Amino acid sequence: MSPAIDSRRLLGTDHNLGKRLHAARERSFVGRKEELAAFARALDSGGRVFYVHGPGGVGKSALLRRFVQEATAAGRPVTLLDGRTLDPSPAAFEAEAGQVLGDERGVLLVDTFERIQGLECWVRERFLPRVPVGTVIVMAGRNPPHMMWQADPGWAGTLQVMPLRDLEPAEAADLLDARGVADELRAPLLAFAGGHPLALSLGAAVAIRDSEASSRWTPTQDVVSTLLGQLVGEVPSPAHWHALEVCAHTYMTTEDLVRAVLPDHDAAALFAWLRRLPFVESSPLGLYPHDVVREILEADLRWRDPQGYADMHQRIMAHLVTQIRLAADADVLGAVGSLFYIHRGPGATSRLHDWSQKGETYEDVFRPEDTEDLVRLAVRAEGEEQAETIRFWTARQPRSFHLYRRTDTGELVGCCAWLRLDELDEETAESDPIMATAWATARATAPLRPGEHLAVIRVWGAGQNEKCPTPDLVQWRAIGYCLRSERMAWSFAAMGTERAWAEHYKVYQMHDLGEHAWVGGSEYALYAHDWRAAPACPWLERLLAAGGQDVPAARQEPELAVLSQEEFTGAVRKALRHLSRHTELAANPLTRTRLLAGRADPARALRDLLEQGIKDLSRDPRAGKLHRALDTTYLRGVPTQEAAAERLGLPFTTYRRHLLAGIERVSEDLWRRELWNDLEPISR
């Protein structure tokens, strides 16, 4: 019998996996002696605030993990926060970090502070002055601290700024030595990565797994592909590689996103594999790779498979649009922000939407007690005439309002409201000339049909001033409303004419139709969009295509026809008369309605639609006579209606009554589908 194997001998003293991980990280951590010494002094004396800043991948997170170890070893209670998963509002920050306010031995570390940079002033002026004297605070992010820290003499002896830079050559060599990189690979690795800790670590991970890597370690563009191809060793399957590409493209990756983008594969298994990768982090919102890894993966797929990249992008986009439509109201901004994140980069859309979510302002719900503050804001922005308009609509449609506040002070800086109108009553017309003008413009151009409504976005403060920090939130809210609203016929944006807004709203495919409104002495242009003529999904694709990304160009589809019920019924009658004539059907206005939008052969699709409508009548026992009249007249090739009546054995007047009733029945069925059709998918 073989002797029993002592697992403790195999593992040495590291009989716990956590200890093994800790030991491995200890061996790989090099440099940063000055930073560690300063932190150790602060643990001894207390009352210190550190601000660590440097570019992505330079080792900020690794340093903070080391700080956590040092503080824990010193018996200090530690709180570690990550700005990527923290809501950028004072309330959320205090809820997560507030325990340090009551413990003078507490240590608070905030990683990725650039994601919540808008809180910086509030943290400096409102939060930190309340912490006990012995508390140690560390904030780490890409951006250096605001100059106000240094301008305030009160912070001179308390704040220590730690700019984190690449490792020194000797330290970089030590890191490679700690990772077990062979001597012959050090020179090409150092030439490729310099002293960048993450690039060195990733390069080392590749090099030690491939004995032939030295022949490829040259500082060329191909190095990215070489590094990426060996980053995780043997990838189990193409599906796993696709999942990794999805993770790199999106802001946060969830299992349901993987399932939507890769429907033919085991999403749960792929997600579990992703979360085990050494360069993928977990958060309450999902998984995300390190920034450097993300960009390498993105660059590789764009270069290697442009069409594959475009297809993946389109599937992710469709999923995110669905998320926007299904999200709770409070989650709409995050959902829209995730959509714009996948369009990050140079271009018109990127300039209009800052997906980095720095949190200078945050959205707040409207409460009745906010009315007078909102009145004062509107009066300052647009004049006394706005006071009664605000009171009128906050009483009638309070849930249409969203407020925007500064994160550092809570000051109300803006408000937007999507005011819905199903019909115009006399009180509304008298109280709000803008809404009355929007209603009149829609009625004169293309009136609302049964079940439809129009909406007017009103903005006070936010978005009307270029220096106001809230336009992105207002625009994200507007895009969310447009994608979520069912049976919205028209939307209007009311903006003062003192600024030229035409080019701005042109990006959103909204145009000034010429009818302006006057409120007191102020003139307002109404930028309009007819959602029946240009539905939400083609509209969104054209909007996002303005970002200049390497994705398929938006389909240049003509505007759809917006028919009244009378016009629609007339078009059905005409189409039935020409059911066998392809040219006549192609010219029928029904081929340009939402009912047939996007069909490759709309004339053939119209014929099929009408034939199916006739056949459907046969399923209703009460409509048998109507079905026979339509079937004989339009599907059996009889030359005249008189011949159809004779074939049916009916007096001509009886036949005509059945025929007209059948046409009316088919028209009504199709009309309901035109009005109440489900929202179309983002891609077809």
From TrEMBL:
Q: What is the lineage of its organism?
A: Bacteria, Bacillati, Actinomycetota, Actinomycetes, Streptosporangiales
Annotated protein name in UniProt: AAA family ATPase
- Name the source's superkingdom: Bacteria
Under the heading Pfam families, the entry gives: AAA_16
Q: Which Gene3D superfamilies match?
A: P-loop containing nucleotide triphosphate hydrolases
Domain Orc1-like AAA ATPase, by residue range, is 29-83
InterPro entries in alphabetical order: AAA_16 (IPR041664), P-loop_NTPase (IPR027417)
